[in-house]
Design goal:
It is built from 13 helices and eleven strands. With 342 residues, the protein is an alpha/beta fold. The protein has two domains: 4-133, Rossmann fold, CATH 3.40.50.2000; 151-341, 3-Layer(aba) Sandwich (Rossmann fold), CATH 3.40.50.2000. The chain has a six-stranded parallel β-sheet, with helices on both faces. A three-stranded parallel β-sheet has the order 3-4-5. Helix 6 (187-199) packs across helix 7 (213-224) and helix 8 (239-247) packs across helix 9 (258-266). It is globular, with a radius of gyration of 21 Å. The two termini are 16 Å apart. The relative contact order is 0.11.
């Protein structure tokens, strides 16, 4: 989804272009329905599937890509597989990131033109837009895009109604986890924030979470620690439904994760906590958002917790009071925040 500003810029410059996007299997929903994209092709990541070996699937994918006779390919990834597919797809113009010194000698042959490697002090969206600028396109500052259909909203409304939500007060979405649990804040801190938002600020809270075992266990531990129980939709929504839910929220609170980027895409103000990952590169795109982090010299480290512990002390050290202050500010100015990110 973070590539959608670059895709929008391409489509704006070439309205007749027919854009195909290749994505990892399981992430199709992030870009499905985007009006700038004509076709989304899932890319499996090894192993036998549907009775076919990984080699057979890759071969069929290459044949499929070559049959389309693309004029241009842009590889937004930084890895051998993307470079390999870019070369084999056969487009006469192929743009990608320049190779790192550690990459194989052939990596630079995959592309006809390259852009500099992403820098940690620059947003990844801007690095993707470099490929568009290389084509002589001035992209401005396009927003992220996330699409869903009206039928995706019905299960969300039903589940909120089942939980007792009566629409009198706009709700706050709290998505406390990431697939990578070392990006997760203190569970006790989440419980205190949820209580304060509902009790002191008078806003209903909807807690969401991915269906994975670790995420569900973390959410249940948070809910068990709440003296004022929030609405719980964790593990009950697909990505399209989650996007519809977040779009209806007054604000989103969470960590560096795909739902955080969805919130930025649908124009919902974000309060995000950052630890081992870098906010300059991966923060919520757009205006009206707030990022809380510790200015420690060791971060962002990109490690899976301190000394491999799966616990990031730079996240643990963020104070509950600071989170509540940021949320209070965002909720007080939510209308301004929405207009800025639109």
């Amino acid at each position: 989804m973070i590539t959608t500003p670059a895709i929008s810029a391409l489509k704006a410059a070439y309205p007749e272009a027919r854009i195909t996007m290749v994505v990892n299997t399981g992430t199709e929903a992030m870009v499905a329905g985007n009006p700038d994209i004509e076709e989304v092709i899932p890319l499996s990541r090894g192993g036998e599937e549907d009775g076919r070996s990984g080699f057979e699937r890759n071969l069929n994918l290459i044949r499929r890509l070559r049959s389309k006779h693309f004029d241009l390919s842009i590889d937004f990834t930084i890895g051998d597989r993307g470079a390999f597919l870019s070369f084999l797809a056969g487009a006469p113009q192929r743009i990608g990131f320049g190779p790192k010194k550690s990459k194989q000698w052939w990596w630079s042959l995959a592309y006809t033109r390259t852009v500099p490697q992403p820098k940690p002090n620059r947003h990844i969206v801007d690095s993707h837009l470099d490929a568009v600028r290389l084509l002589g396109i001035s992209p401005g500052r396009p927003r992220l895009k996330f699409s869903w259909e009206p039928p995706d909203e019905d299960p969300v409304k039903d589940r909120l109604r089942e939980q007792g939500y009566d629409k009198r007060e706009p709700y706050l979405v709290v998505h406390p986890t990431s697939r990578w649990m070392f990006k997760t804040w203190r569970l006790e801190g989440y419980a205190r924030v949820i209580e304060a938002v509902q009790g002191e600020l008078g806003r209903p809270v909807v807690v969401t979470g991915g269906p994975g075992k670790n995420e569900m266990e973390a959410v249940q531990a948070i809910l068990s620690g709440c003296r004022i129980r929030p609405l719980d939709l964790s593990g009950r929504l697909n990505l399209k439904q989650l996007g519809a839910l977040i779009a209806g929220a007054s604000a989103f609170f969470g960590v560096d994760s795909a739902p955080m980027h969805i919130a930025a895409a649908v124009g919902t103000p974000v309060v995000a906590l950052f630890g081992p990952s870098g906010e300059l590169m991966w923060g919520p795109w757009g205006r009206g958002h707030r990022v809380l982090k510790k200015n420690w010299p060791c971060r962002p480290c990109g490690q899976d917790g301190c000394e491999g512990s799966k616990i990031s002390r730079c996240l643990e050290a963020i104070a509950t009071e600071d989170v509540l202050a940021a949320l209070s500010g965002v909720l007080a100015g939510e209308r301004a925040g929405r207009s800025e990110t639109a």
